[in-house]
Amino acid sequence: xxxxxxxxxxxVAHDLWSASTxxxxxxxRTAGFVIAVxxxxxxxxxxSRSRVTFLSGTLATIATVMLAxxxxxxxxxxxAVASSSD
Length: 86
Prior knowledge:
The chain is built from 4 helices and no strands. With 86 residues, the chain is an all-alpha fold.
Protein backbone atom coordinates (compact mmCIF):
# COMPACT_ATOMS: atom_id res chain seq x y z
CA UNK A 1 0.00 0.00 0.00
CA UNK A 2 3.01 2.30 0.28
CA UNK A 3 3.01 2.90 -3.50
CA UNK A 4 -0.65 3.93 -3.74
CA UNK A 5 -0.06 7.71 -3.32
CA UNK A 6 2.62 7.57 -6.01
CA UNK A 7 0.40 5.65 -8.42
CA UNK A 8 -2.52 8.00 -7.79
CA UNK A 9 -0.18 10.96 -8.33
CA UNK A 10 0.57 9.61 -11.78
CA UNK A 11 -3.13 9.94 -12.51
CA VAL A 12 -2.87 13.66 -11.78
CA ALA A 13 0.25 13.95 -13.92
CA HIS A 14 -1.58 12.33 -16.85
CA ASP A 15 -4.77 14.39 -16.33
CA LEU A 16 -6.90 11.41 -15.33
CA TRP A 17 -8.18 13.32 -12.27
CA SER A 18 -7.49 16.59 -10.50
CA ALA A 19 -5.11 17.34 -7.66
CA SER A 20 -8.07 18.14 -5.40
CA THR A 21 -9.55 14.70 -6.11
CA UNK A 22 -6.20 13.16 -5.20
CA UNK A 23 -6.19 15.19 -1.98
CA UNK A 24 -9.65 13.92 -1.04
CA UNK A 25 -8.74 10.32 -1.79
CA UNK A 26 -5.55 10.46 0.26
CA UNK A 27 -7.33 12.34 3.05
CA UNK A 28 -10.01 9.67 3.32
CA ARG A 29 -7.31 7.00 3.25
CA THR A 30 -5.45 8.71 6.09
CA ALA A 31 -8.68 9.14 8.09
CA GLY A 32 -9.24 5.41 7.72
CA PHE A 33 -5.80 4.75 9.20
CA VAL A 34 -6.48 7.09 12.11
CA ILE A 35 -9.80 5.38 12.86
CA ALA A 36 -8.44 1.86 12.45
CA VAL A 37 -5.34 2.12 14.65
CA UNK A 38 -7.11 2.27 18.05
CA UNK A 39 -9.57 -0.43 16.98
CA UNK A 40 -6.73 -2.65 15.80
CA UNK A 41 -4.93 -2.08 19.11
CA UNK A 42 -7.92 -3.36 21.06
CA UNK A 43 -8.35 -6.32 18.70
CA UNK A 44 -4.65 -7.16 18.99
CA UNK A 45 -5.04 -7.39 22.76
CA UNK A 46 -8.05 -9.69 22.47
CA UNK A 47 -7.14 -11.95 19.51
CA SER A 48 -4.13 -13.86 18.28
CA ARG A 49 -1.58 -12.11 16.06
CA SER A 50 -2.30 -14.31 13.08
CA ARG A 51 -6.04 -13.61 13.23
CA VAL A 52 -5.51 -9.84 13.47
CA THR A 53 -3.04 -9.96 10.58
CA PHE A 54 -5.47 -11.98 8.47
CA LEU A 55 -8.39 -9.64 9.21
CA SER A 56 -6.28 -6.54 8.52
CA GLY A 57 -5.06 -7.94 5.21
CA THR A 58 -8.56 -8.89 4.18
CA LEU A 59 -9.95 -5.46 4.99
CA ALA A 60 -7.04 -3.76 3.18
CA THR A 61 -7.73 -5.86 0.09
CA ILE A 62 -11.43 -5.00 0.13
CA ALA A 63 -10.68 -1.30 0.63
CA THR A 64 -8.18 -1.27 -2.24
CA VAL A 65 -10.67 -2.85 -4.64
CA MET A 66 -13.38 -0.40 -3.51
CA LEU A 67 -11.02 2.51 -4.09
CA ALA A 68 -10.11 1.25 -7.55
CA UNK A 69 -13.77 0.91 -8.48
CA UNK A 70 -14.66 4.33 -7.06
CA UNK A 71 -12.14 6.29 -9.11
CA UNK A 72 -13.21 7.66 -12.50
CA UNK A 73 -10.24 5.85 -14.01
CA UNK A 74 -9.17 2.96 -11.85
CA UNK A 75 -5.81 2.49 -10.15
CA UNK A 76 -5.24 -0.31 -12.60
CA UNK A 77 -5.63 2.18 -15.43
CA UNK A 78 -3.20 4.54 -13.74
CA UNK A 79 -0.70 1.70 -13.50
CA ALA A 80 -1.10 1.04 -17.20
CA VAL A 81 -0.54 4.74 -17.94
CA ALA A 82 2.55 4.74 -15.75
CA SER A 83 4.01 1.74 -17.54
CA SER A 84 3.30 3.02 -21.06
CA SER A 85 5.76 5.19 -22.87
CA ASP A 86 4.88 8.56 -24.42
